[in-house]
Amino acid sequence: GQNIDQPTEMTATEGAIVQINCTYQTSGFNGLFWYQQHAGEAPTFLSYNVLDGLEEKGRFSSFLSRSKGYSYLLLKELQMKDSASYLCAVKNSNYQLIWGAGTKLIIKP
Amino acid sequence: DAMVIQNPRYQVTQFGKPVTLSCSQTLNHNVMYWYQQKSSQAPKLLFHYYDKDFNNEADTPDNFQSRRPNTSFCFLDIRSPGLGDTAMYLCATSSGEGRGNEKLFFGSGTQLSVL
Fold it and tell me: What DSSP state is assigned to residue A80?
């Protein structure tokens, strides 16, 4: 089967750094996405990785290792508004998007 | 601004009473999707349209139907909602250019409660 694994919940402190991990097993690979989803709202696109390495976009960075089936999302200088769920999704060889259940990130003052 | 709009934002229906959710887009995207998302779970793809071509996921219950009368609009019909259909229903679009980095644009979702 195909699956995406992420921690269910993480807690971090305002101003700190947090790393959210994602491991995947899919039939083929055509890229990995991270989406942010605030409670009761729709997901919004954060990042896309298809090659190994780190992609930096402001306070958010996303890393991919295809050989390990692993990605992480790094959030720096955490703000209260970063409290949300972070969804990892992989596009397989058929261009189907396989979703993880999301990691709920709680930011404390 | 170009966007994906879903109505209503919240919908309450009775067990067995048909309900229709709507989605419109101004992005002129070829592909439209309907996802079901239950609390703390991954979004589950119900079906998608590539232009007028309808693609049903194998495990989507027959109780769920969809219509796309034109490029801009798509509807989700639940013929006889059960308690287990309580969920957020997300409409999304993508350009349909077939590239790996093609991202989804989501509407704000309809939170459906079946009582």
Answer: G
